[in-house]
Amino acid sequence: MKSGLSKRLLFRPWAIGLALLCGLVMVPYAMPVLPVPAFVKYNEAIGSFLHLKFMQTENHRDGPLPQDWSDMHGWPELTALVAKVVSSLSPEERAKAVIVAENYGEAGALEFFGKAQNLPPVLSGHNQYFLWGPRGNLGEVLIDVNGDCGKSIQLYRSATLAAVFSNPLVMPHENNIPIMICRGPTKDLKDILAEYKEILVTKATHYLANRVKPVGICPPIRLRG
Q: Looking at the whole model, is its pTM more than 0.85?
């Protein structure tokens, strides 16, 4: 008994030390203790050993940062650029303008950061935003964030590229995205949002059908539904 107890007591400091070491390795991922450039290098050095890809909640390709950390960057800059595009409109167009974002993340960020800049209403065909609908807006002038004014199905008679948003720290699918000014709708805004929803579904289906499945020690766990 004493021999076994002695061995456990001898092992305890090593176990505590290992636990502390593992905790220290994860500190930069849990707390902003490193400047962003240093964190990018840190992630490049050890990220693959930590299998962070198995914690992803999306199927998109990562950039220099893991997905959850990329999603913390770029929103104020995107909002500022959209505000600049809105300010380029005439007062008459600004009064009837709406913003449509490709996904709920972009839409939510534009609503949150755009309050201080008095942005037009923000809509989307994605997730809950689609259920909220046009909210009384007509969409005669539409600022399309990360879209092309429904060019392939001619949702608008006029489409003008107003700006391109770039940020190397955001997710690749949200980098170098167009910001378009759409004029002359060919459908009601409710139907336009429905078309945007279908475009998103088509893009997602195509992506999932062609993506390369990740390889690792354990398969990623994904929820059904």
A: no
